[in-house]
User: What shape does this take?
Amino acid sequence: MFERFTRGARATVKGAVARAERVGAASVTEEHLLIALLEQEGSRASFALATLGLDGRRAALDAAFTEARRRGGLTRADTDALARIGIDVGAVVDRVEGAHGEGALDTGRRSRRWWSGHRPFTPGAKSILEKSLRVALGRGDRFIGEEHLLLALTATPGTVADVLAEHGATYTSVHRALYGPGADGQGHAEAG
Assistant: This one.
């Protein structure tokens, strides 16, 4: 599948691997893919992110991801659903951290193992790469570009999509920023 990626999409994937290595992560996650997209310049995805005001909000995105990792990777929807049945995730996190130390539930904690340099992709990150192919094919595109990766990140339920939505970047708003307000949303059904 990697042969179908444009030069920019390949750079994004390589950037995600480099980001995972820099922070000492055991594997490449969806978050690493988004951060790598944010670091790309001059692409359709960077244009869409800038249009939506996300290009200057890296610190806010990082803080949101840190908080999500602190909650054990639970999405806002998960947290809200648990609250509806009487479970206060914040209180649970506080109790766990009180007993086991700050960041005990952090899903992005660094591994203390020695790594050979190879970082595997998490199932979620692999899903994003696969979904980007479906998004591209659904739009009738032969190659997978950064814009398809970005659309896949917004269309896949999880922490990254939640954080993006909290900052105004939903599948619909990103699609509109990429293809214009009159775009028909083609490819959305294939993205899901």
About this structure: Residues 94 and 101 are 9 Å apart (CA to CA).
